[in-house]
Write a structure and sequence with these properties.
Elements (H helix, E strand, L loop, with lengths): L1 H34 L2 E5 L11 E4 L5 E7 L5 E5 L4 E6 L4 E6 L5 E6 L12 E6 L1
Parallel strand pairs: 1-3, 2-8
Antiparallel strand pairs: 3-6, 4-5, 7-8
The structure holds copper (II) ion.
Copper (II) ion binds next to loops.
Protein backbone atom coordinates (compact mmCIF):
# COMPACT_ATOMS: atom_id res chain seq x y z
CA UNK A 1 0.00 0.00 0.00
CA UNK A 2 2.75 2.36 1.02
CA UNK A 3 4.80 1.56 -2.08
CA UNK A 4 1.74 1.85 -4.34
CA UNK A 5 1.12 5.44 -3.29
CA UNK A 6 4.66 6.58 -3.64
CA UNK A 7 4.40 7.79 -7.28
CA UNK A 8 1.33 9.82 -6.29
CA UNK A 9 3.19 11.37 -3.37
CA UNK A 10 6.12 12.24 -5.62
CA UNK A 11 3.75 13.72 -8.20
CA UNK A 12 2.04 15.80 -5.52
CA UNK A 13 5.41 17.02 -4.26
CA UNK A 14 6.47 18.05 -7.79
CA UNK A 15 3.11 19.71 -8.40
CA UNK A 16 3.36 21.59 -5.11
CA UNK A 17 6.84 22.82 -5.98
CA UNK A 18 5.68 24.03 -9.40
CA UNK A 19 2.72 25.86 -7.88
CA UNK A 20 5.01 27.50 -5.31
CA UNK A 21 7.46 28.66 -8.02
CA UNK A 22 4.64 30.09 -10.15
CA UNK A 23 3.29 31.87 -7.08
CA UNK A 24 6.67 33.41 -6.21
CA UNK A 25 7.28 34.55 -9.81
CA UNK A 26 3.77 35.98 -10.01
CA UNK A 27 4.25 37.91 -6.80
CA UNK A 28 7.63 39.19 -8.00
CA UNK A 29 6.01 40.48 -11.22
CA UNK A 30 3.25 42.12 -9.22
CA UNK A 31 5.72 43.72 -6.82
CA UNK A 32 7.77 45.09 -9.72
CA UNK A 33 4.76 46.40 -11.63
CA UNK A 34 3.68 48.27 -8.49
CA UNK A 35 7.11 49.85 -8.11
CA UNK A 36 8.11 50.54 -11.71
CA UNK A 37 6.24 52.29 -14.52
CA UNK A 38 8.01 50.17 -17.10
CA UNK A 39 10.70 47.54 -17.33
CA UNK A 40 13.35 47.13 -19.94
CA UNK A 41 15.74 44.27 -20.53
CA UNK A 42 19.03 44.86 -22.30
CA UNK A 43 20.76 42.33 -24.51
CA UNK A 44 22.89 42.71 -27.63
CA UNK A 45 20.94 42.76 -30.91
CA UNK A 46 21.91 39.17 -31.74
CA UNK A 47 20.52 37.93 -28.43
CA UNK A 48 17.24 39.80 -28.21
CA UNK A 49 17.92 43.55 -28.26
CA UNK A 50 15.97 45.82 -25.92
CA UNK A 51 12.96 43.97 -24.65
CA UNK A 52 10.27 45.05 -25.03
CA UNK A 53 11.28 47.17 -28.00
CA UNK A 54 8.59 49.73 -27.26
CA UNK A 55 7.66 50.87 -23.77
CA UNK A 56 4.73 53.15 -23.02
CA UNK A 57 4.48 55.50 -20.05
CA UNK A 58 1.88 58.12 -19.14
CA UNK A 59 2.42 61.81 -19.85
CA UNK A 60 2.97 64.17 -16.94
CA UNK A 61 3.35 61.54 -14.24
CA UNK A 62 6.61 60.63 -12.51
CA UNK A 63 7.99 57.57 -14.24
CA UNK A 64 10.38 55.03 -12.81
CA UNK A 65 11.91 52.68 -15.35
CA UNK A 66 13.90 49.61 -14.42
CA UNK A 67 16.60 48.63 -16.90
CA UNK A 68 18.05 45.18 -16.40
CA UNK A 69 21.14 44.09 -18.27
CA UNK A 70 20.81 40.30 -18.48
CA UNK A 71 23.66 40.08 -20.97
CA UNK A 72 27.29 39.03 -20.52
CA UNK A 73 28.60 42.41 -21.72
CA UNK A 74 27.97 46.00 -20.64
CA UNK A 75 25.27 48.15 -22.22
CA UNK A 76 24.45 51.82 -21.93
CA UNK A 77 21.15 53.65 -22.18
CA UNK A 78 20.40 57.04 -23.71
CA UNK A 79 17.09 58.77 -24.23
CA UNK A 80 18.26 61.97 -25.92
CA UNK A 81 14.87 63.73 -26.12
CA UNK A 82 14.74 63.83 -22.32
CA UNK A 83 18.49 64.23 -21.87
CA UNK A 84 18.69 60.99 -19.92
CA UNK A 85 21.64 58.64 -20.06
CA UNK A 86 23.11 55.83 -18.03
CA UNK A 87 26.68 55.58 -19.24
CA UNK A 88 27.23 51.96 -18.33
CA UNK A 89 25.13 49.12 -16.97
CA UNK A 90 27.43 46.20 -16.38
CA UNK A 91 26.51 42.61 -17.18
CA UNK A 92 23.96 41.33 -14.72
CA UNK A 93 23.37 44.75 -13.17
CA UNK A 94 20.38 47.06 -13.19
CA UNK A 95 19.74 50.77 -13.38
CA UNK A 96 16.68 52.83 -12.56
CA UNK A 97 15.84 56.08 -14.31
CA UNK A 98 13.28 58.49 -12.95
CA UNK A 99 11.79 61.48 -14.73
CA UNK A 100 8.45 63.10 -15.49
CA UNK A 101 7.76 63.19 -19.23
CA UNK A 102 6.75 66.72 -20.20
CA UNK A 103 5.98 65.96 -23.85
CA UNK A 104 3.93 63.38 -25.69
CA UNK A 105 5.15 61.38 -28.65
CA UNK A 106 7.48 58.61 -29.70
CA UNK A 107 11.10 58.97 -28.65
CA UNK A 108 14.01 56.70 -29.59
CA UNK A 109 16.39 55.26 -27.03
CA UNK A 110 19.70 53.65 -27.85
CA UNK A 111 22.53 51.65 -26.38
CA UNK A 112 25.63 53.79 -25.83
CA UNK A 113 28.28 51.10 -25.49
CA UNK A 114 29.78 49.19 -28.38
CA UNK A 115 28.36 45.84 -27.30
CA UNK A 116 28.46 43.76 -30.49
CA UNK A 117 28.85 44.03 -34.27
CA UNK A 118 25.21 44.98 -34.44
CA UNK A 119 25.45 47.56 -31.67
CA UNK A 120 24.03 50.27 -33.96
CA UNK A 121 20.81 48.27 -34.23
CA UNK A 122 20.33 48.18 -30.48
CA UNK A 123 17.56 50.72 -30.22
CA UNK A 124 13.98 50.97 -29.13
CA UNK A 125 11.30 53.54 -28.55
CA UNK A 126 9.56 55.19 -25.66
CA UNK A 127 5.96 56.19 -26.17
CA UNK A 128 4.56 58.93 -23.95
CA UNK A 129 0.81 59.22 -24.11
CU1 LIG B 1 24.28 47.39 -26.16
Amino acid sequence: MKIKNEPIAVAMLILGTIVAIIGILGFENYRRSAEYTAELTARATEYGNWYPNTITIPYGKPAKILIRNIDVVSHGFALPDFQIAVMEIKAGESAVIEFTPDKKGVFPFVCTIWCSNRHMEMRGQLVVE
